[in-house]
Amino acid sequence: METQGIPYSGSHTSYSVRNLLWMSMHIGFKALAFIIYVIERSVNASFFGVFFAVSIISAIDFWIVKNLSGRFLVGMRWWNMVDEEGNTKWIFENRKNQASFYEAPNPVVKKFFWGVVIGFPGLWTLMALVNLLSMNFIWLTLNILVAALCWANLVGYFYCNRDSGSNVGFAQNFISDRVYQTITSGFTT
């Protein structure tokens, strides 16, 4: 796996109406998926209806966070591609690589972004653990699906942040290294 940091241009405003829109979208779809899951589980709704609704909302959330809210709130975006030889190449865009155009994000916006990106994977992982311990495997599949989407964004943004030269903190870098080692060890053993 190869990584590459690519700067991109664009304007970034501090705490503004536009940021409020992106912050709302950043947490809105995640919260909606979780609320539907909790309410529908408590009223014993149809698994397939809940699975469909939560999966679609989580997929939309994944795309919005990966491609839009990260870019507009903290100046980062990531993706991967497969080259002609079949090798996966991870690409990370960040504004910090363009020092003359970089405007640091508002600290409140930055903390909000990272809090949501870190919090929801933990929340869905906790739900998966609860369903695993209660041997409720059908709901566990939904928890794993949504947690995987959340964790993918978390890991992508950790590496994007690390490649930008920014420091989110020792604990976050430690977590991202452990998650990466866990994921890659599963493929190499």
TrEMBL record:
GO cellular component: Golgi membrane
Membrane topology: Multi-pass membrane protein
Keyword Membrane belongs to the record: yes
Major localization class: membrane
Superkingdom in the source lineage: Eukaryota
Compartments it resides in: Membrane
GO biological process, one term: vesicle-mediated transport
Sequence intervals crossing the membrane: 20-39, 46-65, 112-130, 137-159
Keywords: Membrane, Transmembrane, Transmembrane helix
Short name of any one Pfam family annotated for the protein: DUF846
Family: Belongs to the TVP23 family.
Alphabetized PANTHER family for the sequence: GOLGI APPARATUS MEMBRANE PROTEIN TVP23
Record's protein name: Golgi apparatus membrane protein TVP23 homolog
Originating species: Thelohanellus kitauei (Myxosporean)
